[in-house]
Amino acid sequence: MSFIADKQTLEDMNMLGKYNHHSIFNLFNKVKTTGGEKLLQQMFQTPLTDAELINKRSRTFAYFQSTQITFPCSNEQFGAMENYLSGSIGKFFPGVIIYHASKKLQAAVLRDEEYPKLQNGLQQTIAVLRQCKAFISQFEEKARQKHPFYDELQMVKTILSDPKLEWLNKAQSGQSSLLNTARYDYLLRHTMQQALQTVMDTFYMLDVYLAVANLAREKQWNFATALPNGTNLFTATELRHPNINKAVANPVSFNSDSNLIFLTGANMAGKSTFMKAFGINVYLAHMGFPVAANNMEFSVKQGIYTSINVPDNLDMGLSHFYAEVLRVKKVAEEVSSGKNLVIIFDELFKGTNVKDAYDATLAVTAAFSEYRNCLFIISTHIIEAGEVLKHQSNIQSLYLPTIMNGSVPTYTYQLETGISADRHGMMIIENEGILELLEAQIN
After folding, report:
1. Residue (of 349, 355, 342) closest to 327 by Cα position
2. Distance (Å, rounded) from C-alpha 365 to C-alpha 378?
3. CA angle, corner 32, sides to 29 and 33, nearest 5?
4. Maximum CA pair distance of the chain?
5. Which distant-in-sequence residues (6+ apart) come within 8 Å of 123 by Cβ?
6. Strand 294-299 vs strand 341-345: parallel, antiparallel, or unpaired?
7. What stretches of 20-70 adopt beta strand conformation (E)?
8. What DSSP letter does each residue of 289-358 carry, written as one string?
9. What's the whole-model pTM score?
10. How far apart are CA 55 and CA 390, in angstroms?
11. Keyword Nucleotide-binding, does the record have it (predicted)?
12. Are the CB atoms for 281 and 292 separated by under 8 Å?
């Protein structure tokens, strides 16, 4: 079963995007190889829903976080080997000899570049395979005991120790004779092609593990513990946004008897940032990746839905309010189907009038809260709804305060228990001199 996170959710949390410099993917994209980058993209697109697999991946990252190991090859070297091995070669060795003889003749007579390129690709591949073999030997000396990536590296060691590859350490650098070039080429691109693809795939995986582990060590991030679904537990201390330097941290706690946070606070108090931080860390935790939180434990969920930046759709004739309603309907369908989900709603029904927003926020929040297998964070400016909802035992009323220094608002970004009483909108408008500006233009 795949983890659910639709396009709207991924955009709200800014999860994906190789060319989006502020995406969470780009934050983690410190890999050395193109193959490693593709694997990292795949991991971001397919979070896990099995607690055992999540914890196994986390343990592997944590292990490499504790080491000082560097990836042994460059992207150029691995790219050259990948290009070389992906080329076609005949199934029968005599035909390969004829092919090489033909290409060598063309290179001599017609100055054709294909044969020199083939020889270069062969030499690059030999060099990379030697480096991989040396890396495994050095790594085993450092490890001295079984580790989470042991089986994968042992499989590569077995492949590279195959008697058919004994010549690797003896092969001379530079151009080989026609017969040796043909023999090596046939062995690498036909006889052992699938086995060598396994070697590359394993080192791409190693590339990802080392890159993510190094980032976790640099940022001093930790690894969450995944629990089987059903307990509906989430707890973390010092949870913060991973893409904000020196972000303010907050504790977060949920269980079946306290499964909804009703969040209030002024604009700019940090509500959206807190909710995104929570959602991003939930997503990363299901990937088995490091999280910007301490002591994090979570029951595995089937997916996450957010409604933070819901756009209108003029092409379909949808107003902002109706787009919000359709988003809530979509989430309601998923929740009522029995799925175990994390739901984040920022400013429900802000596209309609205050009375309708109050009634809808109150009714929808109360209805969602009854699904004790899911976790919810719902923010609003309609603090009157919070006064009614705070009497439900499973709803946590939290707010982000505003502190006034005279007429200037400041923000702690630190969660407090209760419902916000901040009403500083007009004061901020006055501080910006908007009314005076308009009056001056009239006069």
Report:
1. 349
2. 7
3. 100
4. 96
5. 173, 174, 175
6. unpaired
7. none
8. --BSSEEEEEE--SEEEEESSPPPBGGGTB-HHHHHHHHHHHHHHHHHTT--EEEEESSTTTTS-HHHHH
9. 0.90
10. 36
11. yes
12. yes
Model pLDDT for residues 223-269, shown as the tens digit of each residue: 999 998 878 999 999 999 999 998 999 999 999 899 999 999 888 88
User: What residue has token string 């490091």?
Assistant: 290
Q: Give the C-alpha distances (Å, rounded to integers) separating 441 from 339, 433, 438.
A: 57, 12, 5
- Rounded-to-integer distance, Cα 71 and Cα 419, Å: 51
Question: Quick one: DSSP state of residue 439?
Answer: H
288: helix, coil or strand?
coil
> CA 409, CA 424: separation in Å to the nearest integer?
8
Q: Per-residue DSSP letters for 365-420?
A: HHHHHT-TTSEEEEE-S-HHHHHHHTTSTTEEEEEE-EEEETTEEEE----EES--
Q: Tokens 């606070």 — which residue?
A: 265
Quick one: 19 exposed, middle or buried, by C-beta within 10 A (0-12, 13-18, 19+)?
A: exposed
Q: How far apart are alpha carbons 261 and 372 in whole angstroms?
A: 13
Residue 432, both tokens: 């910006």
Listed in sequence order, the residues at least 6 apart from 166 whose beta carbon sits closer than 8 Å to its beta carbon are: none
Amino acid (1-letter code) at residue 6: D
**Strands 294-299 vs 225-227: parallel, antiparallel or unpaired:** parallel
DSSP 89-135: --SSHHHHHHHHHHHHHHHHHH--SHHHHHHHHHHHHHHHHHHHHHH
Q: Is the pLDDT of residue 443 over 60?
A: no
pLDDT digits (tens, 9 = 90+) for 174-231: 566 777 788 888 888 888 889 999 999 999 999 999 999 999 999 999 999 999 887 8
Tens digits of residue pLDDT in 283-330: 999 999 999 999 999 999 999 999 987 665 555 545 777 888 889 999
Q: What is the DSSP string of 244-275?
A: STTPPPEEEEEBTTB-EEEEEE-TTSSHHHHH
Per the prediction, the chain carries an average pLDDT of 87
Q: Which residue is associated with the tokens 């086995």?
A: 195
- Cα–Cα distance between 364 and 381 in angstroms, integer? 15
Helix then strand count (H, E) for the chain reads: 16, 12
